[in-house]
Amino acid sequence: MSLERLVDEIRTRAEAEIGEERRRLAAEESRITEERDRRLATIQAEATRQAELETARERAQRLARAKLDARKRVFEARERKIGRLLEATRGVLTDFADSEEYPAVLKRLYAYAQGSLGKQIRVRGRAKDASLLRTIAKGAFSDEPLPILGGLVAETTDGARRLNLSFDELLRLREDRVRELLAA
């Protein structure tokens, strides 16, 4: 074998090995590129899914806040309306306390108080009703005026039991029912 042939043989083998290495390198590069692209696609899909979930969650929270705020505003408006109507009701009761039917109502309230607490009672009421209560209750009337819309407050002479028949208290006790009627 000649030297040139040996050199050609070595060169041919070297070129074959270099070609094989280049093909292996290209295949490895292609595999790495595919793996990178696959990972990027997975990461982008996950990021898109997370963004959609976060957007949906945020939208649901905003909607819930808006609904709660709307309910709160409706409730506040209803309460303002009912408050105005309760004030108007107090005005009607005040007007009624100045009407001609009021003395008969005071007599019935006094009779009811006597029936509930007994004959020995003390009665108090508005300063404006003092003369009327004096004639109805006779000696059972106490001159201490009460800051009430109308009606009377009765208690036993020993102070053990008390019956508040003032318009204020009657309205307060039935406020839930009055609210139902006013809200309708």
Could you explain how this protein is built, in words?
- The model has no long low-confidence stretch (mean pLDDT about 90).
- α1 crosses α5 (about 175-184).
- The chain has helices at about 5-95, 100-115, 130-135, 165-175, 175-184; strands at about 120-125, 150-155, 160-165.
- The longest helix is centred in the first third of the chain and has 95 residues, at about 5-95.
- It is built from five helices and three strands.
- The chain folds into two domains: about 1-95; about 100-184, hypothetical protein PF0899 fold, CATH 3.30.2320.30.
- The termini are far apart.
- It has about 180 residues and is mainly alpha-helical.
Strand content: 5-15%
Which blocks of ≥5 consecutive residues have pLDDT under 50? none
Separate helix tally: 5
Q: Measured on Cα atoms, how large is the radius of gyration?
A: 47 Å
Helix % is: over 70%
* SSE order: HHEHEEHH
How far do the termini sit from each other?
Answer: 118 Å
| Shape annotation | rod-shaped
Main beta sheet, described? 3 strands, antiparallel
Number of domain units: 2
Number of strands: 3
Class inferred from helices and paired strands = mainly alpha
Strands across the major sheet, in which order?
A: 1-2-3
Arithmetic mean of pLDDT: 89
